[in-house]
């Protein structure tokens, strides 16, 4: 008869794959934030070269986009194993240890997902604001 521990390795593999995918996604979000930050700095520099009232909206929006990207880049706790705490399971029943490590891995994945879900709206706002900054800067140049 099959026991619940029989499915544990399958679930553990899915959890490992999900964690790896979330780490890649988190890296991609941070990279995109860096790109938005760089472009907002460039747009702000372009807008500040001609300090006319027509360029003020683009400059302000570029600065706001940069601040939003910085907010998304704020360091957060990266959930990982507390490996020293694993010592207490050295003499435990293997099925109990497997269950506890699987539960902890699932919790790590849940926390990673929550971290990404906190960053993405800030990144989205930064991208939209940067697009508006580019548009406002272009219009400011046209109407200047």
Structure description:
α1 (8-49) packs antiparallel against α2, α1 packs parallel to α3 (94-143) and α2 packs antiparallel against α3 (94-143). The protein is rod-shaped and about 75 Å long. 76% of the residues lie in helices and 0% in strands. The chain is mainly alpha-helical. It has one domain (11-143). The protein starts with 7 loop residues before the first helix and ends with a helix. The chain has helices spanning 8-49, 56-72, 94-143. The chain has 3 helices and no strands.
List keywords for this structure.
144 residues; mainly alpha; rod-shaped
Can you summarize this structure?
With 144 residues, the chain is an all-alpha fold. Helices cover 76% and strands 0% of the residues.
Order of helices and strands: HHH
Low-confidence segments, ≥5 residues, pLDDT <50? none
Spatial shape: rod-shaped
Percentage of residues assigned to helices: over 70%
Structural class, judged by helices and strands?
A: mainly alpha
How would you sum up the major sheet? none
**How much strand?**
under 5%
Instruction: Tell me the number of helical segments per DSSP (H or I, 4 or more residues long).
Output: 3
- The number of distinct β-strands equals 0
**Total discrete domains:** 1
């Amino acid at each position: 008869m099959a026991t619940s521990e029989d499915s544990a390795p399958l679930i553990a593999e899915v959890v490992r794959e999900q964690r790896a995918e979330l780490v890649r996604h988190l890296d991609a979000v941070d990279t995109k934030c860096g790109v938005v930050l760089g472009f907002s700095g460039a747009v702000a520099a372009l807008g500040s070269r001609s300090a006319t009232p027509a360029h003020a909206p683009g400059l302000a929006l570029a600065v706001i986009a940069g601040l939003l990207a910085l907010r998304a880049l704020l360091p957060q706790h990266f959930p990982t194993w507390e490996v020293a705490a694993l010592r207490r399971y050295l003499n435990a029943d293997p099925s109990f240890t497997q269950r506890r490590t699987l539960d902890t891995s699932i919790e790590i994945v849940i926390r990673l997902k929550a971290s990404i879900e906190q960053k993405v709206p800030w990144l989205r706002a930064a991208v939209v604001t940067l697009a508006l900054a580019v548009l406002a800067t272009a219009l400011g140049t046209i109407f200047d």
